[in-house]
């Protein structure tokens, strides 16, 4: 207490920190959204936006007095604690903005705070937060004395004009003495009342969206981090939109396609291929199956008894199947020479299609060249042509140098043994279904769409389709005939499923998800640094806050590959890369290349680090392919390669990263099905990773790589998946005109939804929470999304779209919103998710 009394500048400094923090954060908050606000309404309602800030500042000014009595000391400590909290919140706001160009969403932070591994992501920007806090303190220090005395005089003037006459003890007001109290004089009461009534009227009449969100004041907004998840009732089916003629301009939907329209119940029979002891993932095929109620515990609210209905492909109004189509012509005569004994799924962290491989003709490539002076551009083109040599061989898309010549593939340490025009299916136009890694990874492994809630709530729920490891485990329960084994000996081998990555799997319950997907064996950071592990110790340092570089897994992969050969095992190997994750580190002995120039206002060092990790992962893929060649199993291994999501940088957009960022650079991903004995086929399709599992099953059926009993199972479950098979012509729409709608959740999953359709060039970012705005782009005219249309309400956005792009675009927008809302509810239903 003596310390504060002896340093009278402490209360003014604390108060100045409050004022600077609250007002600067509010101004930043408004500036981030001002382009989407109608000017007239913004001017009209702007006074109401600062009312919570004035309230916070006033209350803390009253608390931050030089204390004398015990009560004043208690109030002063309370005010000091709130000041520090406000300072922290403002520093975080500015630090997050400087790192990503976006704003902090305290409502999503609660999920991060409960996850130790996720905390490393938050602390990755700690230096920027500290720097922001230091700037706020410096400004506060210089204005503290004048600001404190000025506000004190204002409060003193208010007191003097309004209170006299009745004796009262010393109040909380600055320099107050025992005083008399009387009513405010009439000439002060009238204008004050007018102002208060006007503000109250504006508060009542202003639209809730977005002005309630813009009004938020720190530290009050931090309360959103502790909202919690309340239990709700079981989600119920809702009718699919466009049931009646004339409601959609693009397609018609028969009434019997509506979920919840109560069609006649068909008598279900237990499939003959389903074992008595049902393996995990296949319980929905059991007659009378249902998800057990006890996993949700006692419900906090009363819900009407409802019967849970599993996902049913025959009643999915958004499903578009191409299984009735013929095999792609180049593949029809190739299958008789193809064996698939092993399957490998490689998920590329932050894998952008524009860099798999690097090619001219994309907004990113142009941005990379624009960072160089004109005289240096040819050298830059030559470097970029040589950056992803392995990717060029895997996709069959080849880069060219500054002279227009193909890249020198001989510089790669791995050389593709496949013949000319061989190598498999390369999909151009693929989009991720989620910019959150683990949700995207689950789509590829299980053929399911993710749950539109923040982070990996799916880890605590039943995945509504069997995942690849579970399918292979069911295959292990079937026996091959002697004739089958004689023709193809590997049909008698058992499957072994292993998940591998060099980073931790504790982030956001990934380890739990892996178990639910059916993986019983794994190699992760925890294994690599375990003193009991075969290949301990690791050879290098950790390259990011998740773990090691990929090369640390090489000896384990080698053991798995050669073990499968020696032990007559069929291997399903899933591998997630991580070096291409922020902060984009590579091993110390890996030579970095300077790909970026110095032109422009953007710091190109981050992009340069990312490009070097892209080259590192490209080399790593060469190591994997070389390992398969060395083991002699390249010609019997199918490899699916897909990006989990992209990665936005300052060269792409103002807002960077994937968190709450719907920019298209976060969604374009590579998708390749590699087999050296398959002809090279390029498919242009607006596909997602939902196609991976159906394509793998379809390929194994067509190549006779399954024993008869397994083929029966695969053929029975294949039509149940929502994705199409990429060995058949990709259908953009159904016979009735229903397009393929692609939904993509934006990290962290529960705030925004990206919507595209295969028959239109339009793209919509639809908010799932009121804190976010609608965003519309025309990818045909603006592939880099540099000129989006934004609005906080659909009527406003619809009028903007109508004016800029015409009636067809506005009609598509209306349909996209309806389908998007239906999809969100339906996903919660099929996942049986009861959070609210």
Average predicted local confidence, pLDDT: 87
Helix content: 25-40%
Beta-strand share of residues: 5-15%
What is the rounded Rg? 30 Å
Gross geometry: globular
Tally of individual domains: 2
Instruction: Supply the helix-strand structural class.
Output: alpha/beta
Major sheet: order of its strands?
A: 4-3-5-1-6-7-2-8
Biggest sheet descriptor:
8 strands, mixed
Number of beta strands: 13
N-to-C span? 47 Å
Unreliable runs: 1-7, 164-173, 244-266, 290-300
Total DSSP helices: 24
Give your account of this protein's structure.
This is Sulfatase domain protein. Residues 540-700 form the Sulfatase N-terminal domain. Keywords: Membrane, Transmembrane, Transmembrane helix. The chain has 836 residues and is an alpha/beta fold. It folds into two domains: 2-226, no CATH class; 229-265 and 274-460 and 574-668 and 704-836, no CATH class. It is 38% helix and 9% strand. It is built from 24 helices and 13 strands. It has helices at 2-6, 10-33, 39-49, 51-63, 70-100, 106-113, 116-123, 126-162, 186-205, 208-214, 363-370, 377-385, 389-395, 437-446, 468-475, 482-487, 510-517, 525-528, 554-566, 605-631, 692-702, 708-717, 794-805, 807-830, and strands at 342-348, 422-428, 494-501, 521-523, 569-576, 637-643, 671-679, 681-684, 741-745, 752-757, 762-767, 774-778, 789-791. The strands form two sheets. It has an eight-stranded mixed β-sheet with strand order 4-3-5-1-6-7-2-8, sandwiched between helices. Helix 17 links the parallel strand 3 (494-501) and strand 4 (521-523). Helix 2 (10-33) runs parallel beside helix 5 (70-100) and helix 19 packs parallel to helix 20 (605-631). The radius of gyration is 30 Å and the shape is globular. Mean pLDDT is 87; it is low at 1-7, 164-173, 244-266 and 290-300.
């Amino acid at each position: 207490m003596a310390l504060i009394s002896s340093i009278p500048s402490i209360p003014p400094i604390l108060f100045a920190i409050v004022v600077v923090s609250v007002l600067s954060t509010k101004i930043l908050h408004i500036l981030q959204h001002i382009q989407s606000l109608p000017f007239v309404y913004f001017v009209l309602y702007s006074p109401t936006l600062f009312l919570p800030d004035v309230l916070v500042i006033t209350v803390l000014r009253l608390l931050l007095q030089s204390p004398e009595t015990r009560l004043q000391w208690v109030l002063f400590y309370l005010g000091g604690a709130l000041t520090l909290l406000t300072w922290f919140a403002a520093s975080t706001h500015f630090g997050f903005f400087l790192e990503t160009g976006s704003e902090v969403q305290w409502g999503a932070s609660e999920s991060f705070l409960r996850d130790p591994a996720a905390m490393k992501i938050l602390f990755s920007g700690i230096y920027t937060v500290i720097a922001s806090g230091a700037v706020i303190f410096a400004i506060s220090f210089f204005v503290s004395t004048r600001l404190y005395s000025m506000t004190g005089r204002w409060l003193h003037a208010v007191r003097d004009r309004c209170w006299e006459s009745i004796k009262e003890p010393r109040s909380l007001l600055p320099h107050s003495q025992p005083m008399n109290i009387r009513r405010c004089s009439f000439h002060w009461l009238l204008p004050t009342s007018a102002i208060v009534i006007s503000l109250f009227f504006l508060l009542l009449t202003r639209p809730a969206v977005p002005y309630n969100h813009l009004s938020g004041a720190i530290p009050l907004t931090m309360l959103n981090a502790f909202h919690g998840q309340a239990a709700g009732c079981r989600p119920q089916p809702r009718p699919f939109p466009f049931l009646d003629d004339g409601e959609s301009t693009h397609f018609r939907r028969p009434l019997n396609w509506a979920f919840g329209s109560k069609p006649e119940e068909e008598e279900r029979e237990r499939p003959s291929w389903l074992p008595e002891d049902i393996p995990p993932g296949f319980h929905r095929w059991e007659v009378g199956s249902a998800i057990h109620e006890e996993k949700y515990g006692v419900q906090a609210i009363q819900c009407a008894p409802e019967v849970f209905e599993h996902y049913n492909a025959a009643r999915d109004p958004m499903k578009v199947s191409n299984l009735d189509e013929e095999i792609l012509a180049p593949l029809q005569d190739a299958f008789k020479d193809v064996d698939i004994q092993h399957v490998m799924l490689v998920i590329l962290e932050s894998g952008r299609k524009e860099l798999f491989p690097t090619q001219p003709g994309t907004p990113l490539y142009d941005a990379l060249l624009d960072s160089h002076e004109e005289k240096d551009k040819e050298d830059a083109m030559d470097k970029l042509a040589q950056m992803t040599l392995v990717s060029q061989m895997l996709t069959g898309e080849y880069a060219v140098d500054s002279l227009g010549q193909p890249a020198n593939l001989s510089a790669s340490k791995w050389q593709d043994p496949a013949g000319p025009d061989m190598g498999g299916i390369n999909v151009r136009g693929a989009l991720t279904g989620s910019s959150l890694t683990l949700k995207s990874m689950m789509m590829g492994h299980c053929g399911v769409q993710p749950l539109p809630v923040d982070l990996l709530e799916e880890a605590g729920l039943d995945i509504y389709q069997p995942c690849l490891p579970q399918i292979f485990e069911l295959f292990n329960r079937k026996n091959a005939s002697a004739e089958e084994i004689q023709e193809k000996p590997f049909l008698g081998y058992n499957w072994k499923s292993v998940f591998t990555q060099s980073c931790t799997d504790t982030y956001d319950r990934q380890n739990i998800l892996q178990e639910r997907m059916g993986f019983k064996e794994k190699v992760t950071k925890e294994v690599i640094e375990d003193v009991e592990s075969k290949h301990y110790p690791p050879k290098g340092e950790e390259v990011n806050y998740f773990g090691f570089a990929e090369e640390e897994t090489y000896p384990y992969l080698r053991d798995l590959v050669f073990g499968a050969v020696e032990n007559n095992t069929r291997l399903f190997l899933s591998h997630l890369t991580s070096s291409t994750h922020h902060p984009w580190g590579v091993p110390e002995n890996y030579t970095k290349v300077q790909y970026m120039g110095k032109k422009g206002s953007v710091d190109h060092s981050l992009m340069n680090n990312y490009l070097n990790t892209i080259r590192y992962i490209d080399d790593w893929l060469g190591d994997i392919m070389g390992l398969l060649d060395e083991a002699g199993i390249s010609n019997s291994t199918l490899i699916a390669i897909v990006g989990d999501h992209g990665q936005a940088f300052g060269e792409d957009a103002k807002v960077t990263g994937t968190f709450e960022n719907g920019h298209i650079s976060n969604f374009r991903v590579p998708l390749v099905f590699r087999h050296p004995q398959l002809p090279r086929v390029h498919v242009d399709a607006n596909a997602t990773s939902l196609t991976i599992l159906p394509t793998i099953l379809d390929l194994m059926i067509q190549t006779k790589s399954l024993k008869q009993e397994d083929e029966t199972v695969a053929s029975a479950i294949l039509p149940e998946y929502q994705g199409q098979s990429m060995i058949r012509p990709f259908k953009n729409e159904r016979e009735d005109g229903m397009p393929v709608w692609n939904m993509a959740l934006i990290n962290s999953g529960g705030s925004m939804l990206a919507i595209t359709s295969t028959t239109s060039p339009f793209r919509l970012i639809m908010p799932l929470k009121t804190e976010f705005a609608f965003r519309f782009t025309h990818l045909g005219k603006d592939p880099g999304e540099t000129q989006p249309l934004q609005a906080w309400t659909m009527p406003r956005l619809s009028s903007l779209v109508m004016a800029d792009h015409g009636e067809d675009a506005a009609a598509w927008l209306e349909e996209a919103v309806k389908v998007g809302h239906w999809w969100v509810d339906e996903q919660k239903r099929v996942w049986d998710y009861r959070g609210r």
